[in-house]
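Lab notebook: predicted structure, single chain.

Context: the supervisor wants predicted structures on file for every construct in the current expression panel, including those that have not yet been purified. This is the next one on the list. No modifications to the sequence; it matches the entry in the shared construct table.
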Amino acid sequence: MSVNERRSFLKKTTATVATGALLSVSKSATASKPDQKIVIGAIGVGGRGGSVARLFAKLPNVEIAYACDVDIKKMEQSAKEIEKITGKLPAMVTDFRKILEDKSVDAVLIGMPDHWHGPATLLALEAGKHVYVEKPASHNLREGRLMVDAARKYKRVVQVGTQARSSGAVREAIQLIKDGAIGDILVSKAWNSQLRGSMGHKSPTDPPEGFDYDLWTGPAEKIPFKTSYHPAHWRWFHNFGTGDLGNDGVHEFDIARWGLGVDEHPTFVSGFGGKYFHDDDQEFPDTAYCTFVYPGKGGGRDRQLIFEQRDWSPYVQEGHENGNAFYGTKGMLILGKSKGWQLFGRRNQLIKSSKGSAMDGTPHCQNFLECIREGGTPHADIWEGHLSTSLAHLGNIAIKLGGQAMEFQPETEKFVNNKEADQLITRKYREGHWAIPKNV
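Prediction complete. Output recorded below exactly as produced.
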């Protein structure tokens, strides 16, 4: 099969997969119950998960029934903060399986580290719960596909925590692009440009008192504890995180893909990068440049998505620390989540702008609850989350393999004639653990 023939086949197959995913989620709609009280179990409340739990706690007809964390001090602190909002102290548990066993719980919030996102979501869906899972949607590409399949099988709402999807300012900008304000979009760019500190070099030590490291590790490989892992730097280690491509980068990946108008995986990926600046224990690159190519539909032009990362940058790019640019045949649009967007025409003539922010996560929580009560597809449905998170996974794989340019098959979610890359689509699990996903 020639490259052109393969592209034609991939276009048809991927379109069918994407359409099927969207149609099946519409069937998960529950009967319309706009005033239904939603009972939520918050799992992983020590950091970002606690912040999102407080957003939910402030909304009407919501009960935070559980605060769950393997760090007892953080769990107790978060539970007290929720009590200040609601007047009711949630039950506190360290093992989230107790929440899944409670049939009164309608939904769970998963704010655990990346390596738990897929396994916990799958267990929650199997238990009949709706899921709000923080970004990135998954720790690896295979788990992401299993999450999509499980959401459709159990007909439950799964919202990924890429809150810009529910931002009025960002949605307005994307709609302008869709309406042709800057012509045909051929290239979108996402960047993560900021100055991060060094975590230094740490030696293994005993876990702190009141922190269940064994339960925290879960189905990941059990390795000696370092203070680098908890409470904050686990993101930069392969065993637990996805690096900054999956951390901050996935927000920009998601907006870039959304504006580019592609609802499929790319067919080509390349990635170059490494640790150019930081001399510390982190295992992911602080510098990266990735490109992704999407085949044109119906005889249309191919499209390209570019990602840039510099974690040593004391300056911002194009006015935004983390942002997006959309390049069309008639103009361009520059977007940042905290400072709004600017639409330019020919010769950089400013045509329109907005200063709206996408930092408030409340609308995203509201959208999740509305879909549970009244049915419909959430703004950051797991299918969308899987596609965007997969860009981080694909970029990390290309970089890890020394900057390879690789062909990817969207319908099988495997690489073309690259067994070494295919091995990185999944992960090595802790032998015999109860949370290892099925069919990995």
